[in-house]
Task: structure prediction
Amino acid sequence: MRRYLTRKIITYVLAFFVGVTIDWGIPHLMPGDPIQNLLGRFAGLNSASYAALYHQFAQAFGLNVPLWEQYLNYWKGIFTGNWGISIWATGAKVTTLVFQAMPYTLALLVPAVVLSYVLGNRLGAAAARRKWLDNTVLPAGYVFQAIPYPWLALVVPYLLGDVWHVFPTAYGYGQGLIPTWDWTFISSLLDHWFLPFLTVFLVSLGGWSIGMRNLVIYELENDSSRYMRALGANERVVRRYAYRNASLPQLSGLALALGVIIGGNIVTEVAFAYPGLGHLIFEAITNEDYFLLQGIFIFIVVGVLIANFVIDLVYISVDPRTRLSMQGSTT
Amino acid sequence: MSESVSEVPKAPDTPGAVPGAVATPVAPVAGAPVGLGAGGGRVRRQSDFLYYGLRNKKLVFGLTLELLLLLLAIIGPIIAKYPDQAYTGFPTQHPGSKFWFGTTDAGQDVFAQVVNGLRDSYLVGLIGAMSAAIIGMALGFIAGWRGGILDEVLQMLTNIIVMMPALVLIIVIGSYLSHPNLLFEGVFIGLTTWPWVARAVRAQTFTLRSREFVDLAKLSGKRPVSIIVKEIAPNMASYLFLVVVLLFGSSMLLAASYDFLGVGPTNSVSLGWIMQQASNEAALQLHYWWWFIPPGALLTAMVAALLVANVGLDEVFNPKLREQ
Result:
């Protein structure tokens, strides 16, 4: 047990290290000189003022020290909360922008991921080896699994927004409103939240239900299930055990999919102009705001790591083998 | 077996179809690899596969649809009346006999764009799946065969790569590249999705390497590479094939997301790019549905056909899953 946790924690620490190093390294490894690019925007510089400005910028960005020192400074900045200043949002701190955007992203992702996971699993388990349900859930599941997400994020708002005018299709809340905690604002928030939530929910639903269906079928054909039937166990009991056995691989599947889910959220927020982290990242790219881009990247890496850790804890509490070995080690 | 084996889930991980996620087939990892022990001669087994394959409705349906779409991707650009970027002078035409899928607001032929995008999608999917298969197989075989410290290190690497948000990474890298092309996108997808192959290959190698026939090959003095190629790989070929087919589909979906965000190839027309253009030009608000419905619908059909064919193949390879 302890070995399992140690291994996990080492993986997380290493992943964080790799993430930060990639984040730091990419701008340095890429061809081109950012300061040169920046100075390219100034017209009519003579060589003396160019050199002076170059020196000035190199100092301001901390690029005038050796590479290893820049790398160490980067780490120091991360731990002291000095994540740099956004160029796009004229001088706002990267951390402020990120913390402003984060609630929107969490409000979108957490319910969508949890609900699609839970409902998808239930649906898939119910469909396994039940003719008529399987014949509807399975084809629908394949279609949903095959839908390119950007397309869903166009078709759903087109139908529910532009054609039938049921829900607003862009922004986090009504653009005429000032964010306060009154009922009009909250209902506007919910109204704008629904469509992006629905698309993320729908696109994950098919995969979970198909995965669960296949796993439950596999479990129902298992020797242990056959043995239970031979003992005369009720089919409902057999299915319950099959479901519990099948949820473990599904849970580790969720952990593996998190990086894709959290990254994929960018498409959602861009398509719906939803003011979360994904949208912020998009603004950062279009405005060539590299500090902001780097800051968000680290935040997303940390988010994936934390979510993974939570799933680890759930896994430990769900899997009786690890749970028992834990109790065994404490007594 | 060491403790690390217990970390491998009993069946392959099946993440949901989150934007572009990778799904893996049902074939049990810990169980007997598919086709193992069918020692009754290669000829009979192959005709068995053919027999069940042709009678499997899912496989026949999926394969037929996929071949039709592939045909469209190949001959579409030839039969299209206009080049994909040409301005025909007829902006925002509804679909009709002149323009089968209508035209964009700048007067480009949507049909020409979509069939070119189809071709690009297949190419990206192929490059992505192949590069992921090569890296994943190499690392999976090494980790599964050697075990020990090397295995620990490779597993750690696999877990780290899985946790890196690829979409964010390609955005960061892409924002520094002036003109990313199709090859870059495909290889990038391969570089971020190989862990799925590696995990599957490693787990299978682990269960196979302690079998009698592998021991026999070892005793007869065969070199590890030839044991892996001749003894281990053939026994997981069908399973591996299913993993790669699924990766092919998910690579196409991932590419569509990248292109939609504008970090994909800048020098060609792709399905994601068409959707991005439609979205940018307010096709939704102006109800130009023919502009953004066809590219996504065709891509859905491409990937769904693959998934269905894949399940059919799974049932052909694995008798336990056949309809009862």
Remarks:
- The radius of gyration of chain A is 25 Å.
